[in-house]
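Below is how a single chain appears once it has passed through the pipeline. First comes the sequence as given, then the structure the pipeline wrote out for it. We keep one example in the README because the format questions we get most often are answered faster by looking than by reading.
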Amino acid sequence: MAYRYGQDRQQTMLFPQSIDQYVPDDHPVRAYDAFVDTLDFKQELAKSKKLKETIKAALAEFETRGTKTKNGKERMVNRTDPKSNMMKGVQGTHPSYAVHNVVDDKHGLIAHTDAVNDANDSNQLADQVKGAENNLDQPCNIACADAGYSDIDQIEQIETDDRKVIVPSPHQVSHKEPKAFNKREFTYDAENDRYICPEGYCLVFRRYQNKEKTKRNYRIEKPALCRTCVNFRKCTSSKQGRTIVRHIKEDLKEKIETRYSQQEGQEIYKRRKARVEHPFGYMKKNLGVGQFLLRGIQGAQAESSIVATCFNLTRMVSLLGGVRMFRTKLATV
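Resulting structure:
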């Protein structure tokens, strides 16, 4: 073993202050030192902190909404864009936002556009119609939408004497033959709050079917009437007899269904597809907007507004007879 001796008794340090003097330039440790110098520890710590926050947010969502969906599938949380939702499309299921456009019938211009993270259209009708009314600063006379928007609570919010709603129920657009002895073959007696079956027997109110008390359950007065009926097995196979569920807003549902089935309602509904689907086709085909570029619901809403504005400008140029007439009209404003 080698020993190192100091120069004299007054020397305070045996080795130099930096051991770097003892490491030659071609030593492998020099490469490690160069690599460490390139690292940005502040940036790495920031990334680590952000990752920790997104994981906490995902765990909180699992705790709030559960680890299973309504269909019993494993719930997925998108850490890249937590506000998005899994939605089905032509190319499969992806994290997405749904765009809703309200288009005026006369000119085909977009009166209101919105991007939401709700994959179900049924909760959107009232907000979209009211949004269009706010933008135009005038009431809507007739609100028309497809069967995906046929939520009776939403319809009730906008159905008034001055504002009519034309939305078909799912069974009206299913193109399937109704089953024998379906609910519509039973007559509701409002005065006595009961149903009369095709054979003349009465179904009376028994209980509410759900906790919200929005669905009323009607059952045959005497189960033996069904078991001895000539239509037993065709109408029902239950030993307890036939039951019918009536929504507390069934009158409004029947009113909307009747309006849709009338000639005027059919004519308006036929125009709906041409008016509403035209902007979507133009955005995807002509503008090439197949997906959002920004993350977050606010970014998606901003993009949908920009694209809707581009469509409206192009549409107004066509309505006014070309670019020259469009510029002339703008100059007079």
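The two ends are 97 Å apart (CA to CA).

See the next section for the split statistics.
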